[in-house]
Structure formats: C-alpha cells, structure tokens
Design goal:
10 helices; HAD-like_hydrolase_sf; HAD_sf; six-stranded parallel sheet; alpha/beta; 8 strands; HAD_2; hydrolase; about 45% helix; two-stranded antiparallel sheet; HAD family hydrolase
Length: about 220
C-alpha cells in the first residue's frame, strides 16, 4: 500500500473482523428451539440469512414470526450469543492488517449492528481500538438494516469522503448500506453469507481480509 493514502475503510464486526460464526449459529438454533423448530447448519444459515432478521425467520418458518415469538427468539439469541462469544476471536491477521492500513496513511472506522454498549469494550479488550477513528455499534432495536446507521456513522467522520470510502463486511446489507451513502463495498465470504448470495449483490467478493483490503485500496484510488 502506498503512502499518502486518503482512503477510508468502514469495517464490519461480526463475521468480518470478529470470527464468531460458531456463536452465531448456536444462538440461532437456541432461538429456534424456543419455538420447537429444527436446528439448521451453518451452510443453511449462510444460504438463507438476510435482514431484516424476521424475514430470515420467515424463510425458515414459512411465515413471519409473531411479535411475541420475535421477542422470545431475539432475547434467546442475544443471551446465548453473549455467553458463547467469549470463545471467539479476531479473524486471522486482523491486527496486522489494521496496523498496515493505518501506516500507509489510510483511516478506518468500525460500524456494527451489535449493541454499542457491548461492542466498545469487546473491541477495546482485543487491543485494536486505537486503529479506528470511530467505533459505533447499534443503538435502538435489533434486527433491522445497517443503512440508516451508516448515514449517521459516515456523517460523524471528519474529513472522510464517501467517494473514497469502502465498506468491508460479510453481508449483502453491508453493500446496501455503503450504496446508501455513496461509498463502495467489498464483501468477504468468511461470515454470514455464501459466496453465491454475495455475488448476486454486484460488488467485489473476496475470500480473505487481505484481499478485501487490497480491493478497497483499488476501489478508493
């Protein structure tokens, strides 16, 4: 990466920087069990997952969950996830990638749909918080799209041009949120979506975060 890099990366957390697939699928199946639904595999999850999350449940149940069912499933999911995330770690190579991007003159921030109050100490505990000029988690109810959160996040970044901003995430919703603010996106296959579902979005799709950063530099040039 060259010096004097004015490009900016907005990183996703779950399934991108944080390799938490095991906790996610376990939490999903714990939520399904509350309604007597059969568990699903990681492959099924990656093929069917979408936001808003109730639509994902509709794909599996054949109908949208009722408000009462959603509340039970959402509470169960987050309780299980909180208990099991402690066994998860950063995706391989993340600290080095963040440091290299910064040393090349690029800026970076973190926007996640994980709750803000839980996200910030988790990022801090991994020792990577200093690499980010801003860290934002979700505020308000869970289960929605990242687009409006992206508007607020990018709007709060000083000196960052959306045209030279690239969102790196593992979900189609990351690309939709990027488009919403006039940024580019690169999608990573190691998280919540299958390669086929990511390729349907029409943005670059990569199999490693190293490739994602290289592609982000190219897109922002």
């Amino acid at each position: 990466m060259g010096k004097h890099n004015a490009a900016h990366i907005v990183w996703d957390w779950n399934g991108t920087l944080f390799h938490d697939n095991a906790a996610i699928i376990g939490a999903t199946n714990a939520a399904f069990a509350e309604l007597g639904l059969e568990p699903i595999t990681l492959e099924q999850y990656r093929e069917l997952y979408c936001v808003p999350v109730p639509k994902f449940y509709e794909r599996l149940m054949g109908r949208l969950p009722t408000d009462a069912e959603w509340e039970v499933m959402d509470e169960t999911f987050h309780r299980y996830y909180t208990e099991h995330r402690i066994g998860c770690g950063l995706t391989d190579g993340v600290p080095g990638l963040l440091a290299e991007w910064a040393s090349a003159g690029g800026s970076q921030s973190l926007l996640s749909m994980y709750g803000h109050d839980e996200l910030v100490p988790l990022v801090r505990d991994f020792g990577i918080e200093p690499h980010f000029i801003r860290v934002d988690g979700r505020t308000g109810p869970s289960g929605g799209s990242k687009a409006e959160h992206m508007v607020r996040h990018v709007g709060a970044l000083t000196g960052v041009e959306p045209a030279r901003t690239v969102v790196i995430g593992d979900a189609a919703d990351d690309a939709i949120a990027a488009r919403h603010v006039g940024a580019r996106a690169v999608l990573y296959t190691g998280g919540s979506h299958s390669r086929a579902s990511l390729e349907a979005v029409g943005v670059p799709v990569v199999d490693s975060l190293e490739e994602a950063v290289a592609e982000a530099e190219r897109l922002a040039a």
